[in-house]
Write a structure and sequence with these properties.
It contains 17 helices and 15 strands. By secondary structure, it is of the alpha/beta class. Strand 2 and strand 3 form a beta hairpin. It binds pyridoxal-5'-phosphate.
């Protein structure tokens, strides 16, 4: 076989890919027929594909490349760390400097008394850790029946058995099932499910479902509630302003643990270090991944409050961990990424470019005939495609067809924007400039026009 490099013709790369590479969340029949896009380089917010096209990445990869592509500092730190100590584990009373330094840094930037970090290799793994952590917490406290975790329909918490079970996505449960002890309440999605209610009332009503569910299950059986501050993979569903304060009140009232899944909303995405700060949430545990290393290395974790960490410690050894928990290269790279976010004021930059610059332009997309609501918090936005704005109607055609077509128009116009059903979403690298925002909006409008023209 020839050496497989960027220099092979695209068709050849695609054929090898379809023959040997099983892709996540991809229809392999489509892959064989159409071939995957081959991405070869990244710089800032820009990607280059194997045909030399320059594509603006409106999704920061999978919501993760917060500091943008191609930062040499991270490559240098990784190379140095690999030479010095490429790997050692953190099991059995052992540690190393990158894991110590990253845990201490996270304790410094995380709000409140979230001072302890359990490392994982990804967001899914971190959520699996959380399931065991909250159950262990109640066991040590002498309440082993408190095992049930309440989550939301259309939430996303990963695709391991634990993460996929916490998530409320039926197609994921349909492939391989769901673990026991996890129940789902409805999501706070006003545009799609709010009917005639005001957003404020709907937010309260959906949060109250948590209280009803706790009472139905018995508080003595409920360990925790988990939610994303803004549902990302569910379609960038921004909850009504009334939602999180009511969820917080209910968790406090019944003394159940609150887990904020910050895998997308962490590390500046919403204009604060964490989405919990944007929404006034005080979690006992935060799930982190993605922006922690800006995707330069696979790393995730759980940031845990003093009380939960102390109780779990009181129980002695916690029989849980991953070979790559606190991996030294990943930890060193994440630390350098956090240094860049902090020293370059990237969280402030998000606030500066998002409000009002991007927000004005994003909200104006709602004037397009195909667009109903436009939502944006920090650099995380969505638009709902609809045949009838006033009725907040859904397309009668197979769910997601118009969204899929719009996404394809975006690709054709060298813009990566994702669709979730008929919602189009963006989460660009946080370093995006006003000029690049103009390009993104221009290409989005053109794609919407083309998609709309195809409807008639
Ligand atoms: N939690 C949330 C909120 C996510 O958006 C994701 C991934 O998109 C995950 C968890 C899973 O993270 P990973 O894909 O790193 O396992």
């Amino acid at each position: 076989m020839n050496m497989i490099t960027n220099h092979l013709p695209t068709a050849e790369l695609q054929a090898l890919d379809a023959a040997h590479h099983m892709h996540p969340f991809t229809d392999s029949n489509g892959l064989a027929a159409k071939g995957a896009r081959v991405i070869t380089r990244g710089k800032g917010v820009w990607l280059t594909d194997s045909e030399g096209k320059q594509i603006i990445d409106g999704m920061a990869g999978l919501w993760c490349v917060n500091i943008g592509y191609g930062r040499r500092e991270l490559a240098e730190v990784a190379a140095r760390q690999m030479e010095e100590l490429a790997y050692y584990n953190t099991f059995f009373q052992t540690t190393h400097v990158p894991a110590i330094a990253l845990a201490a840094k996270l304790a410094e930037i995380a709000p409140g008394d979230l001072n302890h970090v359990f490392f994982a290799g990804s967001g899914s793994e971190a959520n699996d850790t959380n399931i065991r952590l909250v159950r262990r917490y109640w066991q040590v406290k002498g309440q082993p029946d408190k095992r049930i975790i309440i989550a939301r329909k259309n939430g996303y918490h990963g695709s391991t058995m634990g993460g996929g079970s916490l998530g409320g996505m039926a197609p994921i449960h349909a492939h391989g099932g769901k673990i026991d002890g996890i129940v789902h309440i409805d999501q706070p999605y006003w545009w799609g499910e709010g009917g005639a209610m005001t957003e404020a009332d709907f937010g309260i009503e959906r949060a109250k479902q948590l209280e009803d569910k706790i009472l139905e299950l018995g508080v003595e059986n409920v360990a925790a509630f988990i939610g994303e501050p803004i549902q990302g993979a569910g379609g960038v569903i921004v909850p009504p302003a009334t939602y999180w304060p009511e969820i917080q009140r209910i968790c406090d009232k019944y003394g159940i643990l609150l887990i904020a899944d910050e895998v997308i909303t962490g590390f500046g995405r919403t204009g604060n270090w964490f989405g919990s700060q944007t929404f006034g949430i005080k979690p006992h545990i935060m799930t982190i991944a993605k922006g922690l290393s800006s995707g330069y290395q696979p790393i995730g974790g759980s940031i845990v409050c003093d009380e939960v960490a102390a109780v779990v410690a009181e129980g002695g050894e916690f029989f849980h961990g991953y070979t790559y928990s606190g991996h030294p290269v990943a930890a060193a790279v994440a630390l350098e990424n956090l240094r860049i976010i902090q020293e370059e004021g990237i969280v402030d930059h998000v606030r500066d470019v998002a409000h009002p610059y991007l927000k004005e332009r994003w909200d104006a997309l709602a004037d397009h005939p195909l667009v109903g609501e436009a939502k944006l918090v920090g650099l995380m936005g969505s638009i709902a495609l609809t045949p009838d704005k006033a009725k907040r109607a859904k397309f009668a055609s197979e769910a997601g067809t118009v969204g899929l077509r719009t996404r394809e128009r975006c690709f054709a116009n060298n813009l990566i924007m994702r669709h979730v059903g008929d919602r189009m979403i963006i989460a660009p690298p946080l370093v995006i400039t006003p000029g690049e925002i103009d390009t993104l909006i221009e290409r989005a409008k053109k794609s919407l026009d083309e998609s709309y023209a195809g409807l008639k």
